[in-house]
């Protein structure tokens, strides 16, 4: 674009080059737009809203801008111009009168009239009288704004260039969201108009503003009329979002709380792995209703080019000191801003460039939530303590001479002392005595890094938290990312001897479900019962961490390091326990890994694994065979069932010990019943062969009240008929065989009580289907039978039965019953 634009062109470009200008144009009703173009062509009335600002403002502004020739009507605005929207805007004004040594866009001053504008006017050689207002304005403007004409836009101070970029960005953004923005802006405009009220008042306000501007004062927020604030902000703060009114850094008033970062700085900050000592950043604005923002969290610990899925990337990271606080902040590698590789939210890049954008605090907060269960009986101790004889053992132990590594500093800026470092191989941490590299160059000072992080003590420095798992007790979750090989924490506790450890298992921890014992060195064990958070790390057969011993200044220490794949935010930390089982019973493993060994057991070497695989295969083969057999059995059973018809109830699973036992019992009972029945039959047969006189009464009634019942029962018994009465009770049978006897007798009685040497017995028996069923149904009831003497001759009962039988016939049933009632049974028997 040329340095100077024709009037119409300037306005057009101004409208294009600013989102706000676009908005204004869009907000203007179609008719107004037509009018505007008319006005441009006539050059009598400027096509911007400036034209609507009334006499004073129009004249002064136009003159200032050098855009307006002589007004034909003496400064009075044409009527139709008045009908346009009252969207006077300082930015538009400033855009309208640009450019010096660059495009309108590149030199727009968002604060309104610029010193540059005035200088340009002069430089352009316009011969006109400087008005008092112009003079006043020029005087008030900062000298900094007077830019020599030969300065190209590229040479402009950064803050001025920034304006250009804001404009460009806004233009771009406005173009993208054109329709939405246009619609919203129209709404904003309408809202503004409604608020404005009467036009005259508007004009008055606008004039005031122009004057205030001309005073050369920067537009302070409090000075801006309320209507303008509303107009600019919109009801939803739309324009504020776009930050169009941003002042150049040097001119803007100091921020309320925190200086805004430039887009580049913000990008740089975000792209670097924050080490994180500030869990909660201060609110971005002074308003207490504003959301609080967390400075880090989601990407904490994540280097910009960290991608665990890329093996190449991992190696690269491993070469640097991975994610350590020192590497983040001080190493040359970390100081270089790197490109972010993670996927960002769609609007992120835009916000990132224009705002101090931070991750909302509640995206991932490493804190206990209300109601989360906390571990009990945990005495946290973050450093090792030698206990008992371990102390002496430690003092007596042989100290190896300090090794010296020969690593060289990397020319590419990567960290030295990598996997080939002699100290590293010997599990020694480098220090100034055993390493030639400086702390910043050496990659084998992980415990030193850890100490720095722990000293900071922020939530993201610690970076892990204890949480309850579903099925494995408590576990440890990561609240940030950890690069491969990075130290996460130290496993600390009481260092005890092996003997003491055994004693504790036997005595102190005999009722405990979990042990927190970890072998440190031969003969020395760390008991993490009183120890660090690392004691809560669970086992996995496919872990994401490893636990290693490192000698730090000669002292063995146990560290938890991120595995080869790194650890992502929110993952549970796990390592392979390689469990030495203290008890007989093996613990089931619930790690859920595809290659889970099934138990918390020792890791096997190759030969053991082979053997194990063989055993497993054998097991599988057997299981398959068994399944096959089972399927065949099922088929067979099905076939048999169908062959036998529908009444067949199926086989009994004799494999079941309970069923087996039941079947045996039932069989035994059946046999015994049959035996008793045979015997009863035999005896009955013998009894019936005896004469009645030889039969002695066996049963006597206890009381009169019972007599009837007994008699009735006896009668019923008799009624059953000789053939069915098969239950003489033998002397030895009394009591022990009573159940069998009763069941075979089928008396149709409800119950009997046998006293004397006989046990009590009550049973429901089915009524006999005999010819006397009508009678028996009337007399069936609970009966007490007393067997008078144990040593009753075996023939007594059959005799009694016989007696009744003898008296029995269909016609005499009632009489017999009555007769029995009236006399003692003994007599009845005799008679
Ligand atoms: C050192 S503790 C780990 C912390 C433990 N979860 C707690 O709540 O204190 C080891 C015990 O955790 C349980 N555990 C750890 N990893 C497990 C896994 N993968 N499957 C089942 N249990 C596990 C076992 O009971 C084991 O004895």
UniProtKB/TrEMBL annotation:
Domain SET per the UniProt entry, residue ranges: 462-578
Entry keyword set: Chromosome, Methyltransferase, Nucleus, S-adenosyl-L-methionine, Transferase
Give this protein's Gene Ontology molecular function annotations: histone methyltransferase activity
Alphabetized PROSITE patterns for the sequence = AWS, POST_SET, SET
**Which InterPro entries does this UniProt record tie to the protein?**
AWS_dom, Post-SET_dom, SET2_Histone-Lys_MeTrsfase, SET_dom, SET_dom_sf
In what ranges is there compositional bias, type Polar residues?
7-20, 39-61, 104-122
**Superkingdom of origin organism:** Eukaryota
State the compartments where it is located.
Answer: Chromosome; Nucleus
Is the Transferase keyword given for this protein?
A: yes
The biased composition feature labelled Basic and acidic residues covers: 125-142, 184-193, 223-233, 611-646, 657-681, 693-711
Q: Where is the composition biased (Basic residues)?
A: 160-174
Q: Chief subcellular site?
A: nucleus
One Gene Ontology term from the biological process aspect of the record? methylation
Q: Where is the AWS domain?
A: 400-451
What cellular component GO annotations does this protein have?
chromosome; nucleus
What Pfam family does this protein match (any one)? AWS
Q: Region annotation Disordered: residue ranges?
A: 1-20, 30-265, 301-337, 611-776
Residue span(s) of domain Post-SET: 585-601
Q: What name appears for this protein in its UniProt entry?
A: Histone-lysine N-methyltransferase ASH1L
């Amino acid at each position: 674009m040329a340095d100077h634009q024709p009037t119409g062109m300037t306005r057009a470009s101004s409208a294009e080059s600013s989102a706000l200008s676009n908005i204004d144009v869009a907000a203007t009703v179609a008719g107004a737009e037509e009018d505007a173009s008319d006005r441009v062509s006539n050059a009598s009335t400027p096509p911007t809203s400036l034209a609507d600002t009334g006499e004073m403002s129009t004249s002064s502004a136009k003159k200032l801008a050098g855009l307006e020739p002589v007004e034909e009507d003496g400064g009075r605005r044409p009527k139709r111009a008045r009908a346009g929207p009252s969207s006077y805007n300082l930015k538009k004004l400033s855009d309208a009168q640009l450019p010096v040594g660059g495009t309108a866009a590149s030199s727009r001053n968002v604060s309104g009239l610029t010193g540059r504008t005035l200088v340009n006017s002069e430089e352009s050689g316009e011969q006109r009288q400087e008005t008092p207002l112009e003079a006043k304005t020029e005087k008030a403007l900062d000298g900094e704004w007077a830019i020599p004409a030969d300065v190209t836009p590229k040479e402009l101070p950064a803050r001025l260039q920034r304006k250009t970029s804001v404009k460009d960005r806004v233009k771009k953004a406005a173009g993208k969201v054109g329709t939405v923005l246009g619609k919203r802006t129209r709404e904003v405009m309408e809202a503004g108009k409604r608020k404005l009220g009467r036009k005259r008042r508007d004009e008055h306000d606008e004039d005031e503003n122009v004057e205030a501007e001309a005073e050369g004062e920067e537009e302070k927020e409090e000075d801006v009329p309320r209507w303008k604030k509303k107009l600019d902000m919109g009801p939803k703060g739309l324009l504020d979002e776009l930050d169009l009114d941003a002042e150049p850094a040097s001119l803007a008033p100091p921020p309320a709380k925190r200086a805004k970062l430039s887009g580049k700085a913000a990008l740089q900050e975000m792209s670097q792995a924050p080490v994180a000592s500030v869990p909660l950043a201060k609110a971005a604005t002074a308003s207490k209703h504003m959301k609080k923002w967390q400075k880090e969290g989601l990407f904490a610990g994540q280097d910009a080019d960290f991608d665990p899925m890329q093996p190449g990337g991992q190696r690269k990271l491993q070469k640097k000191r991975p994610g350590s606080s020192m590497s983040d902040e001080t190493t040359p590698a970390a100081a270089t801003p790197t490109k972010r590789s993670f996927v960002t939210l769609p609007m992120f890049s835009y916000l990132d460039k224009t705002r101090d954008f931070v991750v909302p605090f509640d995206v991932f907060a490493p804190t206990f939530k209300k109601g989360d269960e906390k571990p009990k009986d945990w005495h946290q101790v973050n450093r090792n303590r030698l206990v008992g004889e371990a102390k002496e053992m430690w003092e007596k132990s042989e100290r190896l001479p300090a090794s010296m590594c020969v690593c060289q500093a990397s020319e590419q800026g990567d960290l030295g002392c990598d996997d080939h470092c002699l100290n590293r191989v010997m599990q020694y941490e480098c220090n100034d005595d055993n390493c030639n590299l400086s702390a910043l160059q050496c990659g084998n000072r992980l415990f030193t890094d850890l100490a720095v992080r722990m000293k900071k003590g922020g939530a993201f420095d610690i970076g892990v938290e204890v949480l309850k798992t579903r099925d494995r007790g408590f576990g440890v979750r990561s609240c940030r990312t950890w690069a491969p090989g990075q130290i996460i924490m130290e496993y600390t506790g009481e260092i005890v001897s092996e003997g003491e450890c055994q004693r504790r298992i036997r005595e102190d921890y005999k009722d405990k479900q979990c042990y927190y014992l970890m072998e440190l060195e031969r003969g020395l064990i760390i008991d993490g019962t009183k120890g660090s958070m690392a004691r809560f790390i669970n086992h996995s057969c496919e872990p994401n961490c490893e636990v290693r011993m490192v000698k730090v200044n000669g002292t063995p220490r146990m560290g938890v390091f991120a595995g080869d794949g790194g650890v992502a935010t929110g993952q549970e930390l796990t390592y392979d326990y390689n469990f030495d089982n203290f008890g007989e019973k093996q613990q089931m493993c619930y790690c859920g890994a595809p290659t889970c060994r099934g138990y918390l057991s020792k890791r096997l070497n190759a030969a053991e694994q082979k053997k194990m695989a063989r055993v497993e295969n054998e097991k599988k083969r057997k299981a398959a065979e068994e399944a096959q057999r089972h399927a065949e059995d099922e088929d067979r059973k099905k076939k048999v069932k169908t062959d036998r018809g529908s009444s067949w109830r199926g086989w009994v699973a004799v494999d079941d010990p309970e069923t087996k036992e039941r079947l045996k019992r039932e069989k035994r009972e059946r046999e015994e019943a049959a035996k008793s029945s045979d015997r009863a039959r035999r005896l009955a047969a013998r009894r019936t062969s005896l004469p009645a006189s030889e039969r002695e009464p066996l049963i006597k009634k206890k009381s009169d009240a019972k007599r009837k019942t007994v008699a009735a029962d006896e009668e019923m018994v008799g009624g059953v008929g000789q053939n069915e009465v098969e239950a003489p009770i033998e002397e030895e049978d009394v009591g022990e065989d009573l159940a069998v006897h009763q069941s075979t007798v089928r008396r149709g009685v409800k119950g009997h009580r046998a006293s004397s040497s006989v046990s009590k017995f009550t049973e429901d028996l089915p009524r006999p289907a005999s010819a006397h069923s009508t009678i028996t149904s009337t007399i069936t009831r609970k009966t007490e039978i007393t067997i008078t003497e144990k040593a009753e001759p075996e023939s007594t009962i059959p005799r009694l039965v016989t007696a009744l039988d003898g008296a029995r016939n269909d016609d005499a049933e009632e009489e017999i019953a009555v007769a029995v009632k009236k006399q003692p049974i003994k007599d009845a028997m005799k008679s």
